[in-house]
Write a structure and sequence with these properties.
The chain has 1 helix and 13 strands; from the N terminus they run αβββββββββββββ. The protein has one helix at 2-25; strands at 48-50, 66-75, 81-87, 91-92, 99-100, 110-117, 122-132, 135-148, 151-157, 160-161, 168-170, 176-177, 184-190. The strands form 2 sheets. Strands 1, 3, 5, 7, 8, 9 and 10 form a 7-stranded antiparallel β-sheet that branches. Strands 2, 4, 6, 11, 12 and 13 form a 6-stranded mixed β-sheet that branches. A hairpin with a 2-residue loop joins strand 7 (122-132) and strand 8 (135-148). 34% of the residues are buried.
């Protein structure tokens, strides 16, 4: 009887693995990150970073009705990467590039901007990935801007995609948020 109970428990626990992956996926809402890439790709544990508060170049001295969220992307993976799912707030100028060429550090592969209302809490989400023999891997970045008590702050989450995960990170020296306007600049890197 003990042997049958162990088998039953093992099968039950194995059936929870896909549910756990889906639960992590739903931490971002009902966004479909995985369908743009071939095969099953799971979301691995994420890292949350505080965006440095600083005055950004090009920022208006006085508060305007709108401000910019600027995103630079460096593809140091050695292969071209494709844009995955994105959920963006604001007027794009331009949209995230659909393909990012591989470049050598410290070069950047592309960028996009969004015109957004100043002093507004919002969430920007975008992803890039690539397929290789044996699987897919990539990165998801989620910028969360918060405006509270007259001050803007931001965090960025960056889970890796795939069992053989990519290295996903931001460059804190080229990233930041203006605490008075919520203007942001984020430089993300996929390796």
């Amino acid at each position: 009887m003990t042997r049958n109970l162990k088998r039953f428990l093992a099968v039950s626990l194995l059936s929870l693995t896909p549910a756990a992956a889906l639960a992590e996926q739903h931490a971002y809402g009902d966004f479909d990150f995985l369908s743009p890439w071939e095969g099953y790709v799971s979301i691995l544990p994420e890292e949350t970073l505080q965006l440095p508060a600083r005055r950004l170049n090009g920022g208006a001295a006085s508060l305007a009705a709108n401000t910019l969220n600027t995103f630079y992307i460096a593809n140091w993976s050695g292969v071209n990467v494709s844009r995955g799912y994105y959920s963006l707030v604001g007027t794009p100028n331009p949209l995230p590039p659909n393909s990012l060429p591989a470049v050598t550090p410290p070069a950047l592969s592309g960028y996009f901007e969004l015109i957004v209302p100043a002093q507004t809490s919002l969430t920007q989400l975008y992803s890039y990935a690539y397929t290789f023999p044996g699987g897919s891997k990539g990165c998801v970045w989620r910028l969360v801007v918060t405006f509270a008590n007259g001050v803007c702050s931001a965090t960025i989450d960056q889970p890796d995609l795939g069992a053989q995960s990519a290295v996903c990170r931001i460059d804190p020296t080229l990233s930041g948020i203006d605490p008075s306007t919520c203007q942001t600049q984020v430089t993300t890197i996929i390796q």
